[in-house]
Amino acid sequence: MKKVILKQLCLRNFRGIKNLELNFSDRENFIFGDNGLGKSTVFDAYCWLLFGKDAQDRKDYNIRPIINGELLRRVDCEVSAILDIDGSETELKRVFKEKWVKPRGEIEEVFKGNETETFWNNVPINVSEYQKKINEIIDEVIFKMLSIVHFFPTLDWKVQREFLFQMAGTLSDAEIAQGNEDFTKLIDKISGKSLSDFKKEISAQKRKLKENIAQIQPRIDQTQKLIPEKIDFSQVEKEIDVLKQKVNDIDNAISNKAEALRQRFEEIKHKQEYINELKQEQQNILFNAELKEREKTFELEKQRQIVENSIKALQKSCEDDQFNLKSFNSKLSDYKIRLQTRKNEIIALRKEWVDENAKEYDGSDTCPVCGQNMPKEMMENSIKLFTEAKMKKLSEISQRGKGIDAEIKELENEIENIQIKIYSLTEDILEKEKEIADLKDHLALIPVITKIQVLQDEIPEYKELQEKIEQAESGIKQISEDPDVADLKNKKIEFLNHIRELEIRLHDRYLIHAYENEIKELEKRGKELAQQLADIEKEEYIIQQFTKKKIDECEKRINSLFSIVKFKLFDYTIDGNEIETCIPLVNGIPYGVANNAGQVNAGLDIIKTLQRFYGIQLPIFCDGAESVNHYIEMDCQMIFLKVTLDKTLTLKN
User: Fold this and answer.
1) What is the pLDDT of residues 72-91, one digit of tens each?
2) 112 belongs to a structural domain
3) For residue range 250-304, what is the model confidence (pLDDT) as tens digits?
4) pTM to 2 decimal places
5) C-beta of residue 93 within 8 angstroms of C-beta of residue 84
6) CA nearest 76: which of 42, 134, 118, 110?
7) Would you say 196 and 209 are in contact if contact means Cβ atoms under 8 Å apart?
8) CA atoms within 13 A on the CB side of 55
9) Same-domain status, 440 and 494
10) 67 and 189 in one domain?
11) CB–CB of 16/34 below 8 Å?
């Protein structure tokens, strides 16, 4: 078994600890001190040294000391340790540094963030390589499980279960099912699937079956409401036969007068055809009148469209001119400003030229070294140099002036051209606006026709045809059916309607039969679904029993690994259904409500089992150790953090 011992731990400027060196023994070590002195900080520093995070898994969290509410700047935060790993010592160090940079042209340095440096046996290496070496010694999660007493019992119960099953191993489903016929059939049925997936499948099937069963009785009730009232259908059939005979008698009576009626109907037919011809002629007259009105309307609309298009074209052209006018005005203003600037520059140059031209040689004729008068040749040379420099400066000023004069002339030409364009555009705009106004006046004189109206009474030909139609219709009214025949036909219609009503009632016989068969099918379907549901529930019960046996076996295997703590892996809901869980128990009491001593010793018991499983022993940090009088025996390094009245941190071993 690999064994890791913390020989030495040094903290410098780490949180509230300025400088601390702790040298530990291989067995029990006690760190005493009052609250707030940094006992928990010692373990946070140890975790940070290894993984860059404190015991709460916070990366580089509040590492830098705080003095009077302000972070302590420009100091390195450092944690180092000496680890004995299977008899071989390894020195680790992690440093948290500030980066200060002085930007070019600045006097003071600027803070540019933090950086971390790591050392392995005093050799600097990058953080990723350092972390890789740490992980080769111990995984971060396993480190916490083997070093923190309360870590494992406070993990999510599903994570605890996973680790416990890894440690204890699990029996195969076939081994658990052995000797139980129902379990064996279940295993054969779910072959190729997981038990969890199969439970989901039958749960979905059960839910679907319940939904279908719940629909059966409402459908039966609804169908029963649709069944018509039962009557004596044989009596209805007899009544229909009597009525059909009466209709036959009426048909015979009507046929004797059919010829007389046929002649009258023929006359009515001819008159009706004549009326239809007159009405068609009326429609033609009306159509031609509307066509003429449409032609007038089209001509007026065409005139309006031409004028409106002309107005739109002029308005668009006018808008374009106004946009160009605005652009030229803006350019004119810009050129005028530039022109005035150049004129001001000319005035300044003229003044500069006059000032330069007025300068005279005022050099001394005495040598500044010996104090004697300079020779005439030297005096003449000085005057010549002064004159040449003056003429050169005047020439430069003149050249600059010529360049600016050329720019002024060019700007004046541009301004003149722009003003011409502005005048031309202004004239065009005024002319187009006048033309638009004239077109709008002309448009107002063209009438707008929204609807074509043709009055029939104002068309003489139409009125003449209408009079002929009315005369023909009057003639039709004078040709009437024989009153006796009309009465017979009305009676026949009455009998036929009664027959139809009776036949509809007779049809209820088929509806009753169909609905009764539908109810029988629904009742049969309900029994089938109920049986399927019972089969599913039986299968569900077998799965529950199988799962319970499986977890019972797992509980036995898992709990055999521990001395003090036991794990409850199976519980029941209020309605009696089994559910999976993972509850650590200390003397039969859930870990969460056990006293501090019970929780600590339970945590140590778990760590001892984890040490055997992973084959490694690490230093165990036990915070709150003042609440425990007796600890279970551990074969590894122990570091107890106890609250006392000591005003400084004290290590005893």
Assistant:
1) 888 889 999 999 999 999 99
2) yes
3) 777 777 666 556 667 777 777 788 888 888 887 888 778 777 777 777 777 888 8
4) 0.49
5) no
6) 118
7) no
8) 19
9) no
10) no
11) no
